[in-house]
Amino acid sequence: MSGFDWGEITSNLPYLFEVGMVFTVKLTVLAMFGGIFFGTLLAMMRLSHLRTVSMLAGGYVNLMRSIPLVLVIFWFFFLVPYIGAWILREPRPIPVGAFYSALITFTMFEAAYYCEIMRAGIQSIARGQVWSGYALGLDYWQTMGHIVLPQAFRNMLPVLLTQTIILFQDTSLVYVISATDFLGAAAKIANRDYRLVEMYSFVAVVYFIVSFGLSLLVRRLQSKIAVVR
Amino acid sequence: MISIRKISKWYGAFQVLSDCSTEVDKGEVVVVCGPSGSGKSTLIKCVNGLEPFQKGDVVVDGISVGDPKTDLPKLRARVGMVFQHFELFPHMTVMQNLTLAQVKVLGRATREAQDKGLKLLDRVGLGAHQDKFPAQLSGGQQQRVAIARALCMDPVAMLFDEPTSALDPEMINEVLDVMVQLARDGMTMMVVTHEMGFARKVAHRVVFMDAGQIVEDLPKEEFFGKPRSERAQLFLSKILQH
Fold it and tell me: ipTM value of the model?
């Protein structure tokens, strides 16, 4: 360890956190909200009585869960500009940049996982709750929005957050499209200064501290919000 | 008020209701009883369309439940329903339970809905509990809140699906008292229950079901006097012994 250069880490902290970590956290948080939103819609579709609707959502979820994430990131990065061009009827592909490409990818990909969590959450609510909502004259969307989903979210909050911790780690895969996330920033410095050991060790420690710290918080939350019935 | 016309229902190949017909007139109290699995709960859930049926029709206050063009939420808002397991919303306070549908469905102002809610909470003797959550109340109290919640919608009729079967014995009476009072005030009621004391006290007619069929549909006096079918006699002899 005699050659371990602590100065290499301290001198690059601003770049690592202000550029790299900001990208990572922004991507994680936005993809979480987007993923939970679309995942909840997908879950409602999967539980629909209309066969086509539920099969459509089921097909999407199975597709996303059967493809490696790295491949999806690549795929969206190269495809989204063409889709954008097609939608806007432009002759050339529209560059969307690494961040937005990654955000769309993670939102769509995580939606499949959040969908399965929300599906379990919705199914954990007794059928009588839905009945009593309907019996009061509420329609499907009102019953979902005021009665079923608030309880499902509450029941599933720890699992949703655990999935988000996984998402936080998975965002490091954006290095394949050369995005400057936390890992990407460290990799660039490591290669520039040829300080691979320092950089990759530091990155590992930071990912560990953040992920483990969050999982401890989730565990505390779990015992706190256990629903009283 | 409620007219059930020859309805039949199947779960797959299994027939749960066959050709059931009965009427509940305005201001009338009809008790539906019978052994478990006889289709009582399914029948009462057909009245407000919570359970779909394949044949026949139910007409509530002139509106057909089976007609696909019927606005079911609108119809259900006018028919109160009370469930075996109360089904209060556990993430809302008692008052929020009472006001939700008034505001969202009837479009009442929050203030107006709260006034109405408080009035009905007082009527079931729970005015002091408006800010509690359902889990903080006993079963009997929860069921009385559920009754108040249904009454907040100014229903033209009330449906009760075994309202006392999930309660501890000492709480049954507090719920039945509320129901008796409601019946005496002239509410149209259809009640699935095993409480024969309640039936004797306030029912006008008793419907007896077995294996998905309505076996007896008689005025109360005749039903308790001497029902015609052997099945009903056997049922009565079993539950009236104690």
Answer: 0.94
